[in-house]
Design goal:
This protein has 171 residues and is an alpha+beta fold. It has three helices and eleven strands.
Length: 171
């Protein structure tokens, strides 16, 4: 049996979620669950400041694109390609090209169940760099970038510093 790969589908701008829902309905109607495994519109949480008020909102990481984990064959190609709002697969000509494992890792939204090992509010020690042996409290974690922001004391003040997970260890 063929192997499932991730493919990128180009859509009309603003139609990403509609395309996702339509493909998922077609998968159910045609019993293609074993061939089209996942349809994803990658989102990213962003803090916006409007009128002096911070607000967390979700933004599309790739506007105009939908990622699909599927086994490429005539049926699945037809279903995806003929979904309203889809303009085509990403690839040369009409031949879809799957994303490589390296490309998927670089996209960062499909982590392989990365276990961070740290939690917000946890006290850690910096193990390398200019902050070596500094003790700080984790304020935020960015799994995609594999970093944590900790507060360290500098000049009598709490100062946020972003460090890689590899530079930290638990107390």
């Amino acid at each position: 049996m063929a192997e499932a790969n991730w493919y990128v589908v180009h859509t009309y701008s603003g139609y990403e979620n509609k395309v996702k829902v339509d493909i998922e309905k077609t998968i159910e109607n045609r019993s293609l669950q074993d061939q089209i495994l996942e349809v994803s519109v990658p989102m990213q949480s962003v803090v916006e400041i409007k009128n002096g008020v911070e607000k967390a909102v979700d933004k599309k990481m790739f506007p105009g694109y939908v990622l699909i984990h599927m086994i490429m064959n005539d049926d699945t190609w037809y279903v995806v390609r003929n979904t309203r709002g889809v303009t085509g697969f990403v690839g040369p000509g009409s031949k879809p090209v799957p994303l490589s494992a390296e490309e998927m890792d670089n996209l960062g939204f499909m982590g392989k169940g990365l276990l961070v090992g740290f939690e917000v509010g946890e006290t850690v020690v910096v193990t390398s760099g200019i902050w070596r042996d500094t003790v700080g409290v984790i304020r935020s974690i960015n799994e995609r970038k594999k970093t944590a922001t900790i507060n360290v004391e500098m000049f009598g003040r709490e100062t946020p510093v972003e460090l890689a997970f590899t530079e930290l260890k638990k107390m």
